[in-house]
Amino acid sequence: MRRAKPRDISKIFAEGTLIDKAIATAVREALLQHKRAGNPVAEWRDGKVVWVPPEQIVVDAKAARRRRARSRAR
Q: Which residues are registered as beta bridge partners of 49?
């Protein structure tokens, strides 16, 4: 197994790209899990918190699966 190259954490924080990708992936995964489990999610709309029923949760499931597959392959 190949050992991953160490990354410069200061550079990662300065650029922010990897952090943004990680957050987007986490949100997508959480939405997908809620939708599958039949649980609503809270969302901020027009200055108010509203509950979005699971059947109205929009998530790009294909992108979530691709990211999971890539992370497992590493």
A: 44
pTM of the model: 0.65
What is the distance between the alpha carbons of residues 12 and 23, in angstroms, rounded to a whole number?
Answer: 14
Distance of CA 5 to the CA centre of its chain: 24
State the Cα–Cα distance between residues 25 and 8, nearest whole angstrom: 21
Rounded to whole angstroms, what are the CA distances from 12 to 4, 6, 26, 41?
Answer: 15, 11, 18, 30
Q: How many domains does the chain have?
A: 1
Q: Which two tokens stand for residue 9?
A: 């954490």
Give pLDDT tens digits for 27-46: 999 999 999 999 999 999 99
Residue 3 lies in a domain: no
**Inside any domain, residue 62:** yes
Cα–Cα distance for residue pair 22/67, rounded to 1 Å: 10
